[in-house]
Amino acid sequence: MSTDITVPQLPESVSDATIASWTKKQGDAVKRDEVLVELETDKVVLEVPAPADGVLEEILQEEGATVTADTVLGRVAEGASAAAGDAGKDDSSKDSAAPAEDQAAGTAKAEAADREDSQAGDEAARMGPAARKMIDEHGLEPAAIKGTGKGGRILKEDVQKHLDQAQESAPADKTPEPRSAEKEPEPSASTASAPSPAETAKEAGVKHEPGERPEKRVPMTRLRARIAERLLQATQQTAMLTTFNEVNMKPIMDLRARYKDQFEKTHSTRLGFMSFFVTAAAEALKRFPDINASIDGQDIVYHGYCDIGIAVSSERGLVVPILRDAETLSMAEIERQIRDFGARAQDGKISIEEMTGGTFTITNGGVFGSLLATPILNMPQSAILGMHAVQERPVAVNGEVVIRPMMYVALSYDHRIVDGKESVQFLVAIKNLLEDPARLLLDL
């Protein structure tokens, strides 16, 4: 009996999707609820699970195809065994006069093959496409890698950490060997994951002979095309301006150094800078409601809550999950949610609902070394806060020149809603709250 693998109902704002990758080849054994297909929309990556135990009998839609809800992607033959397992069972049943021990050996061979197929399915299900690609490229054993994702899922960072540890522990004249001396096969079209923009750019820069001018043309991913569309829309349809200031990070850094161990022990999460900025932004948004507003046609919508989006970089591009009611969250809750977003973004596991809405956005280019930049609005929001790298600089304090860890901050805003005076005062409020964290507790 065959069961169809179909595209699930897509979110209301998504009309179609592109097949990013198949995690199995035709003829492979599959387990019910194991991820078989990854679909890329212009916002998130959706996973399509196997509808039943059996064998992937047929693939009807190849990678790169555009599909809509209820499209049949392939079929699973329920209850069937993989080719290796069936071969073992057939061989053991061909000769009815075979000795009992030979029949038992054939049965054991088939069961072992089924166990291998099942184990391979389990391994594929517990890792994202990026992690799977790295594991294949380096010839690693998934069982040897500790997954830190939800449910023990292996993330790209886990694979990189495993490689780093192996390199550190290996002798200087010896590098870790792959699990097989034979050359690993290249990922097939049905198993390779969609390349990231960085991977695509790297591949485009292939070596060439002097005098040659090679080029490589690749289609934009759905997410990259959507990002381009949104950024262009923001620059063309808003009166966007940016104001700048700088923050002395020493008070926060001293506070963090003093309490980070106790904070982690108490709340089971690390204390970073983002929770300070989110808390300060939520407080400043309450004081300046125009910054927390948006334009809807001829109306201005004032939001009585602070849904703050946190820009997160992923292999497929930038995503902005939302911290709902950020003004009510503790710093520990903020840190936990942000770290969860960061981990799931790498596997494309953030849902559309988690990225829908938002009244204000914070983006941190400082993690990549950016010293100063102008962030672009996340429409229809009226403002976005840009954080940057912390750098020691000479500053004047009480008439003396001292060295302090300083961060430039930028606020881009829609001048149709926000006046210059309010934008400057808003950024100064954030600066004051961060430079004197006690104000956050005392509501000053």
Notable characteristics:
444 residues, OB fold (Dihydrolipoamide Acetyltransferase, E2P), 23% strand, alpha+beta, single chain, Chloramphenicol Acetyltransferase, globular, seven-stranded mixed beta sheet, four-stranded antiparallel beta sheet, 12 helices
Which helices and strands, and how do they pair?
Blueprint: E1 2-6, E2 17-22, E3 29-30, E4 35-40, E5 45-49, E6 54-59, E7 66-67, E8 72-78, H1 83-94, H2 100-125, H3 129-138, H4 156-169, H5 197-204, H6 222-237, E9 240-248, H7 250-267, H8 274-287, E10 293-296, E11 299-302, E12 308-310, E13 312-314, E14 317-319, E15 322-323, H9 331-346, H10 352-355, E16 360-364, E17 383-387, E18 390-397, E19 400-414, H11 420-435, H12 438-442
Parallel strand pairs: 12-16, 16-17
Antiparallel strand pairs: 1-8, 2-4, 2-7, 3-6, 4-5, 6-8, 9-19, 10-11, 12-15, 13-14, 17-19, 18-19
What does this structure look like?
- With 444 residues, this protein is α+β, with helices and mostly antiparallel strands.
- The protein folds into two domains: 2-169, RNA polymerase II/Efflux pump adaptor protein, barrel-sandwich hybrid domain (OB fold (Dihydrolipoamide Acetyltransferase, E2P), Beta Barrel), CATH 2.40.50; 227-442, 2-Layer Sandwich (Chloramphenicol Acetyltransferase).
- Helices cover 36% and strands 23% of the residues.
- Strand 18 and strand 19 form a beta hairpin.
- Helix 1 (83-94) runs antiparallel to helix 2.
- It is globular, with a radius of gyration of 27 Å.
- The model is unreliable at 84-104 and 171-195 (pLDDT under 50).
